[in-house]
Structures are given as structure tokens and as C-alpha cells.
Amino acid sequence: MKQILSLFLTIVLLNLPLSVFAQQKVAPPGIKQLSSPQNPLLGFVIHGGAGVIRRGDLSPEKEAEYRKKLEEVVLAGYKMLQNGGTSLDAVEAAIKMMEDSPLFNAGKGAVFTADGQNELDSSIMDGKTLKAGAVAGLHHIKNPISLARLVMDKSPHVMMVGDGAEKFAKEQGVELVPQSYFYTEDRFKALQKIKDEEKRKAEAEKAGKKISLVEAAKDANRFGTVGAVALDKNGDLAAGTSTGGMTNKKFGRVGDAPIIGAGTYASNNTCAVSATGWGEYFIRLSVARDIAAQMEYTGKPVQAAADAVIQKKLQDLGGDGGIIAIDKFGNIGISFNSAGMYRAYINSDGKPVVEIYKN
Length: 359
Prior knowledge:
This protein is an alpha+beta fold. The chain has one domain (about 45-185, about 215-355): 4-Layer Sandwich (Glutamine Phosphoribosylpyrophosphate, subunit 1, domain 1). The chain is built from 11 helices and 12 strands. The protein has an 8-stranded mixed beta sheet with strand order 4-3-2-6-5-1-11-12. Helix 4 (about 85-100) runs antiparallel to helix 5. The longest helix is centred in the N-terminal third of the chain and has 23 residues, at about 60-80.
């Protein structure tokens, strides 16, 4: 009789909707809930972009610089959560710090377009309300993530682009900067490297030869994004992403970073996701939303859902990059199929962990 009763209870539990467990603040069977000395519901993860980041590519000094900045950012965001700040506030603050650093392809460190400009995209999403804000094609906004949040909070829209977005920024009192603010020597050299490769390819094709620019483009830091995901004391999730786009991009190209469901997604029912990588592939697959959907419809844990999309779907399509995610219980998911990804998170002991390469 006891065995029958136990079997019955197991069947009932496994078939209950995840929302039931969320209301009780406990994890459903098969999903491990992390705990920390501070608060079992707090969680924070950041990334600084994925790509061809191999051991030995960075000098010891440059690697130390990245690690120091990533630790500084992840601790700052987590401290906000510990002090009662919202997940949205923590995400925005952390991304602003990375936008202000020339180390990352966002804000100050943005890459150059084909015509020698810097063009910025960003988005943010509130997991509690599913409200979102996004901006694209910016040329004079110091912190695009803050403008994305203003679009979410101060307008009836989700996305604004180009001159219209900057006009809205002026109305909201947002700081504008000249294009020269975004100039960094390393990013400008990366543009020249790709242009030289394009010239070499054109000359080779005239001679009847075919060569690929893919590896040269990647090695020139063509891709890159920053992002953050957070879970606050109220159980609310948020995600944000910001980028300078793709080195040598043409014709007003926009990648996945400002596209809700592709580069950014958050829902309190499942998880918060921020992506980085070859944007065209992330858009085609709706990567961020797909991860949340797999959790919602199949009950997959966040890491399994992330791997199913990044290691299988994205890989099979030919795209590369990665994501960071956190679920409504504080479990963290990190998955990438590139050589490396700048990333940092707060572990179950409340300590910062900084990683760059594949382990």
C-alpha cells in the first residue's frame, strides 16, 4: 500500500505545472535549487563576449585586466541585489560598467563599421512584466543600455532606432557624446585587418582562386557583446545585452543584441538569457526565447535547455557564440561553442567566479 501511495504522489508531483513550485519557492523534482548564505533567491551572471579567445592569445597583463574588470562588475551587480536592488537595476548598472570600459565591444570599446563609424545596439527585459526596451543604430549614446531601459519605462514602444532613438534620448536628458569618444586604437586596427583581408580575397578571386575570410574576421575580434542576467530578492528576473555590433558591418546591419527573443529574454516563469556571438544565427533561431521555451514546455533544467540550443541547434546551423542564463530558482546556465567567452558569476557560496576559456 505504501509503495502504491508513493508512486501516486510521484506521478502527481511530476505532472504539476512549474508555477506551483514557483509559488512555494521550492524547486520541482529534477531541478536542483542553489542556496547561498545571503539569500537563496539571489543570482547574478555577466558575460563580456564570446569568440576566438584561446589560451595564449592574451598577454598575461591583458588577461589579468579582463579578469579584474569582470570580477569588479559581477561583484558590483551582486552587491546591489544584496542591498535590496532590483534585478533590472543590477543588470543596467553592470552593463553600464562594461560599456564604459574599452575592453569590451560595447559603448567605449565598440568596433568600427565599414565606413569607420561606431554603431551601438542594446536591449533589456523585465521578467516580471515581460516589458522590454531596445535601441539600435546609435552613434552618440554613451550608455545604450540606459536608453533601452528608458524606452521600456518611458515610452509605449519596445524598440527605437537611429536618429529617432537619439531624439528620444535628448528629450529624456540622456548624455550624448561625439563619435570620437568611442575611438580605440585596437578596434580601429581590427577594422583595417579585415579590410586588408577583403582586398586580398578580391585579388585572389581575380586570379581564379577562392579563399575564406571567416577565420580572419573572427581573429580580428569581429564579434562581441556584453550582457547580464539577474534574480533579485523578490524572485524577479531580468536580462540585458549591449554591443558595438560586428567589425566592418555594412548597410545599417543590426544583430541579435537588441532583438527580444534572440539576444535577450526574461520571464519569471522560466529564466533570463543574454546572448553573444554571430547575431544572424541567433536571430534565425530565436536563441534566447528558445531556451526559455524548452524549459517552459518540456521542463528541462536551464543548463540542459541552453546546451540543447547552443551545442546542437546553433552548431548544426553553422553559428557560433554563447549565452548566460539564470532560472527562477537561482540555477545558472552557461553554454558556448566558441573557443572562449568572457564570463563571471556568483557561485552558491556567494563568491565571484571569473572564466575566459573552455575548461
